[in-house]
């Protein structure tokens, strides 16, 4: 850890991500809402978290579930109104809980007034707020493939030109080369900070700088296209934009910033999170995408080993500690459930496995994030047809899998394993109708099962539940041993079986060893002398049981 960054308030946070549409439907219209979050604040306080990251609630047509923003200053009426956000900030604050919101400034919705003005008048100043290029030989300007599949260029009706969309065609990219656009973005950011939010999770921020040659690349798929990431992710010159962004906004407020930073090499972390870094912390995805060769091409699956997963975790830990501060997480709204992805032994996709994964990541260096339902040990949901999926990335991956020669059954298998709908299925509050998500209205995303045995009501008063395990972890980190478990040094424990994830957190007078067996085998391991402060089994001896996790205070 960089010593100059000791003691910041956001390091002591435990951040809980809420996906509003799927959290709690307070008015029984099928969609979760802001009032639903307010209603469940006591639950989150009981868990022990200190900040809520609220996924997008802005006005949006919903092509990418809110990440296609039509108005940065308005709330999607399905979720509530601006007053509800003010109430959430106030009532959460009264409980000592901060509110972090998503900042999506790589692109807008194609229904944003800027883009509509750009389409209406090619001479408008708004045409330069986006990236329009003339057709080349009657076709797209180059062969870049969007993250969601297909060409990254969409033809403008009635014109011989195209606009760029790194993601969905309804998410046109903003032109960060335009200083007037940048000032509009900064004004919006400061407006939200003035409202009293605690900070931002900054979406897809490493994509805002594109190579200005807009050159085609050698094709890397049967579609004749090439991944857009090569020319648009963490490209030279992005540092100018990110420094300016920080100076005009974040530096003027007491706030926390968390960058979504795929494509940033470990050796460049100092630029992002160092003493003069762009953000306070970033998300690292090297371990999160261990099961696929490419996070946006799910048919390129990998038969990964625990040893390489562990090394990916530890490599990011070393980079975080050397550069500044990082995050720890195993789930979010773009990932399947960790219990289904990281534990491949079905017999342990249960409380034992959920607790093993929890303790494995939670005590690493950095600010821990918990995604809704993770604290209950939720698993993936299996769907029988592609028609049952809502996620646009799932639909694109399904069709790309077919184009690559896989069968419909194989393609559906990839999607069930990796779909973002796995984590977006409505939250199970009880074992009642619709899992207590609402009073019976059809949820916006249908359940694929009516088994709600994993639910909050059954766990909140159960001392042996996954929920109680998370409560205990939070208390250990934040109340009992913060000096070691928040600010202590990190070091991997070497010379252990590759299926054992072990590391230490230490200060000059305290040391903890975290040991997790990520396998279904009994593995010999001599525990260090000391007090066992956390264990997902009732006992511990010289052999680690399958998926046993232990935290020892030496």
UniProtKB/TrEMBL annotation:
What CDD domains does the record tag this protein with? AmyAc_SI_OligoGlu_DGase
Q: Which reaction does it catalyse?
A: Endohydrolysis of (1->4)-alpha-D-glucosidic linkages in polysaccharides containing three or more (1->4)-alpha-linked D-glucose units
**Keyword list, A-Z:** Carbohydrate metabolism, Glycosidase, Hydrolase
User: Which stretches make up the Glycosyl hydrolase family 13 catalytic domain?
Assistant: 17-424
What's an example GO BP annotation here? oligosaccharide catabolic process
For the protein in the UniProt heading, the enzyme class is hydrolase
Checking InterPro entries in the record gives:
Alpha_amylase, GH, GH13_cat_dom, Glyco_hydro_b, O16G_dom_2
Name any one GO molecular function: alpha-amylase activity
Family in the record: Belongs to the glycosyl hydrolase 13 family.
Its recorded name reads Alpha-amylase
Q: Which organism is it from?
A: Klebsiella oxytoca
- Lineage, broadest ranks: Bacteria, Pseudomonadati, Pseudomonadota, Gammaproteobacteria, Enterobacterales
